[in-house]
Amino acid sequence: MSDWIEDPVLKLRMRLTREGDLLSGEVEVQPGGGVGRHYHPAQEERWAVLEGSMRFRMGRKRRTLGSGEGVLVPAGVRHSLKNVGDRVARLRFTADPALKLEPFLEQAAALNRAGKVTSFGVPTSLGALLDGAALIDRYRETCVLIFPPPFPPPALQSLVFSPLARLAARRAPAD
């Protein structure tokens, strides 16, 4: 299992393990923390709540799970999760197949730790926008983020982020 990966923007930390084509992990989520709306085009996720209270949104349905409960998120289903309790929630997840989810999670958390994204998911500078666009473009077959307006919907993200990612690759190292 990896060292803990801290993500101050999402208010969580995780440890990941890859075994063959399966990625699993432990996740600790602070009260109010969680992961915004997204989907995995070709992966299913299984989540189990070990401690605490988590609200999962899958499509239009919301479900609050407590200790000992779990949920299956099929590939292509938009989902999010949030700690709705007053203490740290502990979860376990698996992603099948793993694809490139592990490096995506590591790199997204690194951007957040570097202060390149606000708590609302807004880039803090032009360099941060380019770094984020490069990340989104690089892992678009693994994870698609659902941004609130005025950001582009998933169907238009490659049209917007791919040119920004090419610009990011040509510029000097990130600020």
Task: Provide structural commentary.
With 175 residues, the protein is an alpha+beta fold. It folds into two domains: 5-96, Jelly Rolls, CATH 2.60.120.10; 101-170, no CATH class. 25% of the residues lie in helices and 37% in strands. It is built from three helices and eleven strands; from the N terminus they run ββββββββββααβα. It has helices spanning 101-113, 126-138, 154-170; strands at 5-7, 12-19, 22-29, 34-39, 44-51, 53-58, 61-66, 70-73, 79-83, 89-96, 144-145. The strands form two sheets. It has a six-stranded antiparallel sheet with strand order 1-2-3-10-5-8, with helices on one face. α1 (101-113) packs antiparallel against α2 (126-138) and α2 crosses α3. The mean pLDDT is 89.
Question: What's the gist of this structure?
Answer:
The protein is α+β, with helices and mostly antiparallel strands and 175 residues long.
* Oligomeric state: single chain
CATH topology of the largest domain: the name is Jelly Rolls
Q: Strands of the biggest beta sheet: in what spatial order?
A: 1-2-3-10-5-8
Distance between the termini: 31 Å
Comma- or semicolon-separated keywords:
alpha+beta, Jelly Rolls, 6-stranded antiparallel β-sheet, 3 helices, 11 strands, 175 residues, 5-stranded antiparallel β-sheet
